[in-house]
Amino acid sequence: MTSCVLAIDLGKTGCRGSLRVGGKPTRCAEVAGAPGLANAGGVAAAEQAILAVVDRIAPATAFALSVGAAGAAAAPDAAALLAGRLAEHSGADAVAVASDAVTAHAGALGGSSGVVLAAGTGAVATAVDDRGRFTRVDGWGPLLGDEGSGGWIGLEGLRAALRSHDGRGPRTALVDAVGERYGIAVHELPNLLGRQDNPASTAARFAPAVAAAATTDETAAAIMTAAGHALGRSVLAAVEQSGLRPPVPCAITGGLVNLGAALLDPLDRAIDGVVDRRAPLGRPIDGAALLATDTATALEGLVIRVF
């Protein structure tokens, strides 16, 4: 296989690409993400985002394209369709498509056993045991799951702001934070979210405001604590279902790590004693690059390949 790899991390917020030659990054690009392969029109939106990155940084020589895509685990037929379209239109001589949860695991633990929590706009916990069996918890999207994710935190914060505005809930600084973050009044939120193709991404933009307010605002603090506990439950469920014996190697990846102690303290308390928390070896995009060339990892059965 060619040593030239274009790795893609396709999330609901952004689509990031990294061109690597001989394992070393040379060029990168980022465009808007896609709502997820399980959504109506998800394959077309994903293809559009990926090809926009390919157009910016693809080399003139042969290359392999490897994609970690949100929603691929929930919609494997859509993932296979995406792989076929990319093989036809991207110019790559080999295409690999996997769930972004799979590439996050590969990047964080380098293909070894353990649990990885990928927490960004969405949230999913994955486990791989010593025999390569894969367990997935949550990642069900903003309507049915993704509990504790950026989209979930953002929506809970926006709901709390509306409750405060109506007098149905306690006064909270999140009301003013809505204007600071979106430049609109609270009562305009339904119109804002209703116009979005990707409302979870729009709501996730409010998660940092909720985390910032948590130091002084009880309502925001309660949301962040609930988010940490929800993410902790996903990690614990992944450990239990996988049969891995504690302490289980565990890495946390994704943009929510940047929210800091308001989220991570309750999360760490929830999983203390069950996991051996360690820094991730790499990012999801590094996992996509690894899976492009390494067909012997424990995750191989979860990768769709088109040559």
Automatic annotation (TrEMBL):
Signal peptide location: none
Domain of life: Bacteria
Full protein name: ATPase
Domain ATPase BadF/BadG/BcrA/BcrD type: 43-292
InterPro entries: ATPase_BadF, ATPase_NBD, Euk-type_GlcNAc_Kinase
